[in-house]
């Protein structure tokens, strides 16, 4: 392991910034292409594939626009995480040493940059790779080519096969005990290979089982309504030029999509803030404060977790109705600002904090609230972030309660709107038919932010769950 040099760090920063610039340009191009898409007169109609567009001075047809959008989105899905991960790794305090895998990784990134028409980053990463190789191995490009040529000559002249034959003869000349030991090692190796193959096959099948519904949602959102309603054999793969990206634009522009999203964000943020405040205060009280009946009250709260949530719906509805909150955002916010599970979850994390810290703080004249804000909250930060994420996701996905108490369309959440008459054709109980491609396009727009949030903050969730059940 060798310590990375300042010159390598500087070139890495330039390459990372170029990658991020490419990602930003891709976002801008996608937004531009989406704004240029022509919407059909009726949402069930299909745009003529030969519709012409003038994009940056070039005349292209509808299928070409769909193809470009598909390629750009595929580029973003692959290279946006890589670009930001590289930038994160650059600022990491652990990225101070390089080994042989470091320069190989840079050469791989260089090849990937070439595939995405990013020659600037490709050249820089190619140069970084050989700088790292010089740091680790002591030679750069010229010696690498000489070594590769020597290996090629050895292979063509048969020296490689001669060395392999010599190794085989040496193994044959080994003692019987050595051969038995080698056979045991080979058998263990084969068993390990079989075990890993079975494990990863099972995990791959489970991953496909989870991924296929999401894939089908995206695929349906990119099809035409005509294909969904008249085709007897649905396709599992469609061409990039056939993808109807205009469906996503229709989902945003033809319905009150912005209103539904805004209501969901308001309810989610306010519910999350209320949940975090009540959870922190209650968990602190049950973990650190001494008062009569503390354990009994906490046991009663835990018992309520055994009651199905649906049974609370009637009493909550009566309470909200008596307060005059029906068809208001208050009915969607206040009933869910307290969670017994989150209180139990955070209390377990607070209980892992040593009592000596609390006693030392009291000796120094620190009050309970100051100890909570200065000591306990920073230590339990991963668990609190986990509660914030789960609470926000729960509010975003809520359906039954918002459907019950918010009948006015201006107060609908996106989960309610997706199952409402907003995404149907005609009117009436018998004539209304769902527009599945538009409905699933809106669903995809709602689901993608949750996936991004989860994968961006999953380390906090794992860390928070670990701290709640591990002594520290």
Structure description:
The protein is mainly alpha-helical and 472 residues long. It folds into 3 domains: 2-138, no CATH class; 154-230, no CATH class; 255-469, Orthogonal Bundle (MetI-like fold), CATH 1.10.3720.10. Helices cover 72% and strands 3% of the residues. It contains 20 helices and 6 strands. It has helices at residues 6-36, 62-91, 100-115, 119-136, 141-157, 159-172, 176-221, 225-230, 246-253, 257-288, 294-304, 310-322, 330-333, 340-351, 355-363, 368-379, 381-397, 400-405, 414-417, 436-469; strands at residues 2-3, 52-55, 58-61, 97-98, 424-425, 433-434. Strands 1-4 form a two-stranded antiparallel sheet. It has a two-stranded antiparallel ribbon with strand order 2-3. A two-stranded antiparallel ribbon has the order 5-6. Strand 5 (424-425) and strand 6 (433-434) form a beta hairpin. Helix 10 packs across helix 14. The longest helix has 46 residues, at 176-221. The model has no long low-confidence stretch (mean pLDDT 82).
The coarse overall form would be globular
User: Strand-and-helix sequence, N→C?
Assistant: EHEEHEHHHHHHHHHHHHHHHHHEEH
Main sheet: strand order: 1-4
Amino-to-carboxy terminus distance = 32 Å
Total count of strands: 6
**Proportion of residues in β-strands:** under 5%
Task: Give the integer mean of the pLDDT values.
Answer: 82
| Sheet with the most strands, sense and barrel status | 2 strands, antiparallel
Q: Tell me the CATH architecture of the largest domain.
A: Orthogonal Bundle
Q: What does the radius of gyration come to?
A: 30 Å
Look up the CATH topology of the largest domain.
Answer: MetI-like fold
Low-confidence stretches: none
Structural class: mainly alpha
CATH top level assignment of the largest domain: Mainly Alpha
Number of domains: 3
* CATH superfamily label of the largest domain: MetI-like
The helix content, as a percent range, equals over 70%
Count of helices? 20
């Amino acid at each position: 392991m060798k310590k990375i040099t300042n010159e390598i760090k500087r070139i890495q920063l330039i390459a990372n910034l170029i990658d991020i610039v490419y990602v930003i340009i891709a976002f801008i191009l996608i937004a531009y292409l989406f704004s240029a898409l022509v919407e059909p007169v009726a949402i069930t109609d299909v745009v003529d594939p030969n519709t012409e567009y003038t994009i940056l001075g070039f005349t292209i047809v509808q299928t070409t626009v769909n193809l470009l959008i598909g390629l750009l989105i595929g580029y973003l899905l692959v290279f946006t995480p890589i670009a930001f991960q590289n930038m994160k790794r650059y600022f990491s305090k652990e990225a101070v040493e390089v080994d042989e895998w470091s320069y190989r990784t840079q050469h791989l990134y260089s090849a990937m940059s070439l595939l995405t028409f990013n020659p600037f980053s490709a050249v820089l990463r190619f140069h970084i790779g050989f700088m790292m190789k010089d740091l680790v191995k002591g030679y750069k490009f010229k010696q690498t080519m000489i070594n590769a040529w020597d290996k090629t000559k050895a292979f063509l002249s048969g020296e490689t096969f001669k060395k392999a034959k010599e190794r085989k003869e040496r193994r044959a000349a080994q003692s019987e005990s050595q051969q038995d030991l080698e056979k045991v090692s080979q058998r263990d190796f084969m068993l390990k290979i079989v075990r890993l193959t079975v494990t990863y096959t099972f995990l791959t099948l489970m991953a496909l089982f989870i991924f296929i519904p999401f894939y089908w949602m995206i695929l349906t959102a990119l099809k035409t309504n005509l294909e969904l309603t008249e085709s007897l054999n649905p396709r599992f793969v469609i061409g990039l030029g056939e993808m109807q990206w205009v469906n996503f634009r229709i989902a945003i522009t033809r319905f009150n999509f912005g209103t539904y999203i805004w209501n969901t964000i308001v309810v989610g943020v306010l519910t999350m803030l209320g949940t975090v405040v009540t959870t922190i205060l209650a968990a602190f009280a049950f973990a650190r404060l001494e008062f009569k009946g503390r354990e009994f009250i906490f046991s009663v709260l835990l018992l309520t977790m055994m009651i199905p949530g649906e049974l609370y719906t009637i009493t909550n509805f009566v309470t909200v109705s008596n307060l005059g909150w029906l068809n208001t955002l208050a009915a969607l916010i206040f009933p869910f600002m307290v969670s017994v599970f989150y209180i139990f979850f955070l209390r377990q994390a607070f209980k892992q904090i040593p009592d000596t810290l609390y006693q030392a703080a009291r000796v120094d004249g620190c009050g309970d609230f100051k100890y909570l804000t200065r000591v306990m909250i920073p230590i339990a930060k991963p668990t609190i972030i986990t509660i914030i994420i789960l609470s926000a996701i729960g509010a975003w996905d809520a359906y039954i309660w918002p459907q019950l108490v918010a009948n006015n369309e201006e107060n609908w959440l996106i989960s309610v709107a997706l199952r409402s008459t907003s995404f149907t054709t005609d009117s009436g109980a018998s004539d209304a038919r769902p527009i599945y491609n538009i409905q699933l396009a809106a669903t995809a727009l709602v689901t993608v932010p949750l996936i991004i949030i989860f994968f961006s903050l999953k380390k906090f969730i794992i860390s928070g769950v670990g701290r709640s059940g591990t002594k520290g």
